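Whiteboard transcription, Tuesday session. T.W. wrote the structure tokens on the left side:
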């Protein structure tokens, strides 16, 4: 027998491999943080002797979810300014609140709250875009989670930096600090074409090419954004970005609600990625990302929650169901955005956008053991005919019982193992009282 660290027995293993295999009564064998075998449970215990064995009963084991767009610290502004259109929301509510409250402590406590919520919702990796990314990275490191930390860039001064050059310089220092880290990578994160100049974007494009790092940015979030660009430059934002070479396999474009068929073709041809944030787009009435058309064109589409201030939660199960239903309604086609496609958007597609597809996003031998267990034993989950469609159309985040990242047990029977839930709640209540009193 082979001595290994961990065996997980599951009623179903949703692999998200290239064939979308769903294995019944199988075990996933983990050693030194990586998956070393996937085999029938009846065979696993004859072949392996594990330090830890988890018989998961009537549960699904699947890859951890990957949230490809978040502003984690904005968890402290959850519900702060609801039922307001995007630019009014940003300019008259969110940006003033951020200018008053955002500092290192705000980002530390907000990111900690977000990471706790994400872990309890089955998310094992997220891509972040916010101020003080160094503070977010430290919290990710402490929590045991995985993340791609955005090196944010704006052309106006904030509490984090004064000029685009300073944003980039600080970002590159962060990149150097974490370049060898096994769970944290950095990505360029210019905010949007309307807040970052062409000169700065050109510099980011050159650095991205040189370092082979993703560039994530809000693009075509609303039709108004596109109309304003046409009025001022006579070009649509994506055209301008393409002309400077940013539309490429390194581009991770967020929102993309206002797209022409030619632009979808361009995204497919260049190998660019799209992050669909359906709940945030609906809540801010930003528009409808043409998901069915993007999938048909073979564009790599992944999922993001956006920040809690424009979504009110970081629930990737909610995003999956909303994405599927919205796509069917917009396309008037019940067969589009299938459950298999939606699950891939929340896992392996996100890994691909981050350049991590060889390490995470599916349950395959050799990959990191970033895994989650979902309980299907309660009456609300019965009967189960197709576990994949059940995950998309029936499952809530409260059914996530256990989470592992690199084989480390970060959520155990709904309890966080490395974060202090009571202390997070205490600090959140203190921020709530402070912000609400002004």
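and on the right, the sequence the group agreed on:
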């Amino acid at each position: 027998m082979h001595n290994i660290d961990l065996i997980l027995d599951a009623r179903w293993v949703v692999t998200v491999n290239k064939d979308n295999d769903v294995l019944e009564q199988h075990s996933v064998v983990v050693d030194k943080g990586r998956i070393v075998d996937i085999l029938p449970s009846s065979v696993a215990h004859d072949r392996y002797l594990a330090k830890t064995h988890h018989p998961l009963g009537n549960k699904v084991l699947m890859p951890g979810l990957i949230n490809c767009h978040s502003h984690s610290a904005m968890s402290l502004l959850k519900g702060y300014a609801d039922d307001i259109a995007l630019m009014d929301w940003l300019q008259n509510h969110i940006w003033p609140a951020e200018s008053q409250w955002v500092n290192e402590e705000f980002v530390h406590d907000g990111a900690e709250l977000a990471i706790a919520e994400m872990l309890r919702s089955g998310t094992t990796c997220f891509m972040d875009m916010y101020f003080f990314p160094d503070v977010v990275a430290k919290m990710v490191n402490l929590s045991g989670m995985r993340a791609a930390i955005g090196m944010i860039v704006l052309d106006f001064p904030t509490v984090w930096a004064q000029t685009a050059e300073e944003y980039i310089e600080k970002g590159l220092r962060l990149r150097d600090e974490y370049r060898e880290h096994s769970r944290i990578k950095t990505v360029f994160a210019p905010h949007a074409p309307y807040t970052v100049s062409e000169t700065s974007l050109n510099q980011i494009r050159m650095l991205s090419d040189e370092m082979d790092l993703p560039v994530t940015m809000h693009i075509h979030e609303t039709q108004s954004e596109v109309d304003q660009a046409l009025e001022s430059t006579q070009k649509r934002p994506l055209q301008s970005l393409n002309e400077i070479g940013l539309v490429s396999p390194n581009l991770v474009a967020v929102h993309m609600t206002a797209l022409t068929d030619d632009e979808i073709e361009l995204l497919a041809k260049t190998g660019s990625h799209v992050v669909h944030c359906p709940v945030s787009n609906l809540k801010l009435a930003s528009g409808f990302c043409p998901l069915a058309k993007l999938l048909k064109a073979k564009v790599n589409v992944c999922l993001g929650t956006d920040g809690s201030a424009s979504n009110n939660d970081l629930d990737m199960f909610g995003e999956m169901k909303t994405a599927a239903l919205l796509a069917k309604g917009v396309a008037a086609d019940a067969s589009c955005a299938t459950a298999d496609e939606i699950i891939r958007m929340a896992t392996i597609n996100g890994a691909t956008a981050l350049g991590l597809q060889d390490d995470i996003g599916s349950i395959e031998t050799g990959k990191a053991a970033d895994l989650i267990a979902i309980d299907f034993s309660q009456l609300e989950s019965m009967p189960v005919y197709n576990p994949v469609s059940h995950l998309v159309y029936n499952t809530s985040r409260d059914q996530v019982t256990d989470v592992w990242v690199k084989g480390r047990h970060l959520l155990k029977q709904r309890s966080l193992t490395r974060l202090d839930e009571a202390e997070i709640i205490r600090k959140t209540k203190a921020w709530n009282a402070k912000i609400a009193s002004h």
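Someone added at the bottom: The mean pLDDT is 97.
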